Amino acid sequence: MNISHLMFAVALMLLATALAVGVANKLKLGSIVALLVVGMALGPHSPMPLLTAHIDEMQAIGEIGVMLLLFAVGLDIQPTKLWSMRRLVFGLGSAQYALTTAAILAFFVAVFGITGVQWQSALVVSLGLAMSSTAIPLPILEERRDVATVHGRVVVAVDIFQSFMVIPV
Questions:
Q1: In angstroms, rounded to a whole number, what is the distance separating the alpha carbons of residues 130 and 97?
Q2: Reduced to 3 states, what is the DSSP secondary structure of residue 46?
Q3: Sequence-ordered alpha helix ranges (H) in the chain
Q4: Which of 9-15's residues contact partners 24+ apart within 8 Å by CB, and which partners?
Q5: Please, which residues have CB within 8 angstroms of residue 153's CB and are 6 or more apart in sequence?
Q6: What is the largest CA-CA distance in the chain?
Q7: Contact 42, 13 (CB under 8 A)
């Protein structure tokens, strides 16, 4: 691995991200839109990937970034606040997850006519597809300062329940 090429790739990615976030903020689109556009433009599955020599290293850097985001979110949520949200987490969070899983499973049954043992595979896929990403809603809520609002608490509660479900699924 050539460290100078890796550093160039990281610098290029950071520069593109900074420019995209600036443009997105001017257009009042939010930073998440900019990050998604940069990921699509420079990522390994783009039509003309720029950083193909360092895909594994860049993916590792991205995973570290996601871990830091989750760590920061975990630091922000206090145990007393989490305890006060327990009804939302286990009530609304479980209902959202169960209904989304059921809807996706029903879609698979309707489209593919799943019978026999195939329903187990469809259930596992439905459980996975019912999950949402923490990386999208929480930064948007933070950016708009909506974390303490009613809908912000609902989003956080659903996200916490889905985080609990990652291990069993």
A1: 6
A2: coil
A3: 3-26, 31-42, 55-76, 79-84, 86-87, 93-112, 118-129, 137-144, 150-165
A4: 9/50, 9/51, 9/53, 9/54, 9/57, 9/58, 10/58, 10/61, 12/42, 12/50, 12/51, 13/38, 13/42, 13/51, 13/58
A5: 85, 88, 147
A6: 55
A7: yes
Q: Specify the 3-state DSSP secondary structure of 168.
A: coil
pLDDT band at 117 (very low <50, low <70, confident <90, very high): low
Taking the CA of residue 33 as centre, how many other CA atoms within 13 Å lie in the half-sphere pointing to its CB?
A: 10
**Which residue type is seen at 65?**
G
| Mean pLDDT, the chain, integer | 78
Classified as helix, coil or strand, 104 is helix
94 contacts: CB under 8 Å, gap ≥ 6: 161
Q: Over 130-162, what HEC string results? A: CCCCCCCHHHHHHHHCCCCCHHHHHHHHHHHHH
On whether the CB atoms of residues 31 and 135 are closer than 8 A, the answer is no
pLDDT, residue 77, reads 65
